[in-house]
Description:
The protein is α/β, with parallel strands linked by helices and 317 residues long. It has helices at residues 4-18, 77-88, 110-117, 152-155, 183-189, 193-203, 212-216, 241-254, 264-268, 276-290, and strands at residues 23-28, 37-41, 71-75, 97-101, 125-129, 132-136, 141-145, 167-168. The strands form two sheets. Strands 2-1-3-4-8 form a five-stranded mixed β-sheet. A three-stranded antiparallel β-sheet has the order 5-6-7, with no helix packed on it. The longest helix has 15 residues, at 4-18.
Amino acid sequence: MIDYTQKIREIAARLLKEGTVDMVIGFRKGTVPMMNEPCFIRKPEEADRLVWDSHCGINLANYLYDRKEKIGVVAKGCDSRNIVTHIVENKIKREQVHVIGVPCTGMADKRRIGALSEKDGEIREVSEKEGRITVKGDSFTKTFEKKEVLQDNCTTCLHRNPVIHDEMIAEPVEEQTGIDPFEDVKRIEALSPEEKRAYFQGLVADCIRCYACRNACPLCYCPTCFVDESRPQWVGKSIDPTDTMTFHFLRAYHCAGRCTDCGACERACPVGIRVRQFTKKLNKDCVELFDWEAGLTLDERPPLDTYRPQDPNDFIK
């Protein structure tokens, strides 16, 4: 996958030179290892700044909505699904976006790699080759199989290839099969009500209410978030356990039927909370109740913002 860099640079330079787009959004090397950053280029000669490897986990769809320019955007599978959602929800027009599709075999989990290397010292350099990721420090070198250090959402991803694109930088990769993406959700569903309460209380116990999960999420684009409303005030701003739980549950419900499980929320969390445990349950419900996965089609709206006579109504007594 690291070989994609040159192709992305060539496409970006061509699109800008021809005037097909006004700007290309991709990635550049971060200032610290395993933390590539969003990169906005407007001139063909800036294309050499763009890179691609297994540390491009940020969802670039987060930088598209409500823009007026014609934009080229580098998009892996989950990014493309969020682009579809933005188009369906009228946050950007399809003709404004030139999707540079990137077949993806998963993003590396910087925390997992860090935990496996923490006894050796600080990681200074990271490289990738033939399905292996090598990290180097002042006095150590360690190599990991990429599949052993993937982000959790990437291990169960069923849509690795972009669902929409204007051009692809490589042939599609083989999609994963024989995987139950909701295995962890089913384990929680099997718990008693008391055990579920204890589980979720423990899950968010370390939350500092920094809202990094909300800010990283491409679905959280409300002009005023419910946590910032004061008239009425829906939820307190403190780290009181009830307020904290209310924030996470309400944010998850706002993403119901729209979440692509891109993992941006978990990647951004500074204390490592498994935020996806809230949204994955709702993803499972949407599959089972409405036969719906977010961001796969431009022709339908999410099930919870439209009405169909055949919708399940067993809950009505």
